[in-house]
Design goal:
CATH topology of chain B: Heat Shock Protein 90
Shape of chain B: globular
CATH class of chain B: Alpha Beta
Largest interface: A-B, 38 and 41 residues
Oligomer: heterodimer
Helix content of chain A: 25-40%
Structural class of chain A: alpha+beta
Largest sheet of chain A: 4 strands, mixed
Number of domains of chain A: 1
Order of helices and strands of chain B: HEEHHEEHEEHH
Number of domains of chain B: 1
Number of strands of chain A: 4
Distance between the termini of chain A: 40 Å
Distance between the termini of chain B: 27 Å
Number of helices of chain B: 6
Largest sheet of chain B: 6 strands, mixed
Strand order of the largest sheet of chain A: 2-1-3-4
CATH superfamily of chain B: Histidine kinase-like ATPase, C-terminal domain
Chain lengths: ~120, ~180
């Protein structure tokens, strides 16, 4: 895929850029040294891939640092207005996809994966 | 870390946390000189001499969630294990440059790993930061400049799930072409 191909792909699939204030959820993936060495990059990949597959356009994914629970990495935190943050730990790519489906799309946190 | 690409992702996080608006990552593989040089340069808050001296101490950290700061010490350990070292050049208010240089063909050198995924992660997570990435290997080079890409595509961010999907393909293809050349 060259730059011209990238342009063609993007132009054929235009979307409105999401502003931070309009996001339904903000997902912060822990990217401290503990998170990165435990597999945070793969968690991010699963997260973004599942969001794209389900055509979700109102979720912002960002990063955070070490949360002080290094033995529970990889971790990510889901923030939304009107509710406290939900922190997920010991995540795997497949658990991450479950959280996308049930929490980010379905609206119900997956208690069994929270810390 | 199992891959050098993960060290790079980790160290670049320091740049982000230091408030960098521009981060430059270069990977130079020189088979003839038997060296690999990795540079992570940022225009973040930088550090004074005192802090630079403390960086290699694993028990030094700027965070308050725990008592260790392992990113630089682990990278330095990998470099030293491969006959090289990590140098930090920093100026308070200007930014920081981390340079790792060690033997490409050292038996203990971890694989470079998935640089496309590392660069993709950095770009995807940081829509307001511009990245310049260059990976060169014996004369061939793959260059990524987010400011140029954004202008060429006519977009302000490369971070949406949809954009991230295309970006990932583009970066993987670029890295693959370099490896095959």
């Amino acid at each position: 895929m060259k730059l011209e191909d990238l342009k063609r792909a993007v132009e054929g699939d235009r979307e409105v850029e999401l502003e931070e204030g309009d996001a339904r959820y903000i997902v912060a993936v822990a990217m401290g040294t503990c998170g990165v060495s435990a597999g945070a990059r793969d968690i991010l990949a699963a997260l973004m891939d599942e969001l794209a597959a389900r055509d979700v356009s109102d979720v912002i994914v960002t990063q955070t640092g070490c949360m002080g629970m290094c033995d529970r990495e990889p971790m990510f935190e889901v923030r939304t207005e009107g509710a406290g943050p939900v922190v997920y730990g010991d995540m795997t790519p497949s658990k991450t996809r479950e959280v996308v489906a049930e929490h980010l799309v379905g609206g119900t946190p997956v208690e069994k994966y929270t810390v | 870390m199992e891959e050098l690409a993960l060290h790079i992702l980790d160290i670049a996080q320091n740049s982000i946390r230091a408030g960098a608006r521009n981060v430059v990552v270069t990977v130079e593989e020189d088979a003839e000189a038997d060296t690999i040089t990795i540079v992570i340069k940022d225009d973040g808050s930088g550090m004074d001499e005192d802090m630079v001296r403390k960086l290699s101490d694993p028990f030094f950290t700027t965070r308050d969630t725990r008592d260790v700061g392992l990113g630089i010490p682990l990278f330095a350990q990998t470099a030293e294990m491969c006959g090289g070292n990590v140098e930090i050049d920093s100026e308070s208010g200007r930014g920081t440059t981390v340079t790792a240089r060690f033997r490409l063909n050292h038996i203990d050198r971890p694989p470079l790993g998935d640089m496309a995924a590392t660069v993709w992660a950095l770009i995807t997570l940081n829509p307001k930061v511009e990245f310049e990435y260059s990976h060169s290997r014996d004369g061939a080079e793959f260059v990524v400049d987010t400011a140029e890409i954004k202008e060429f595509l006519g977009v302000r961010k490369l971070s949406s799930p949809k954009m991230a999907k295309y970006l990932k393909e583009y970066l993987a293809a670029g890295e693959e072409r370099l490896v095959e050349s």
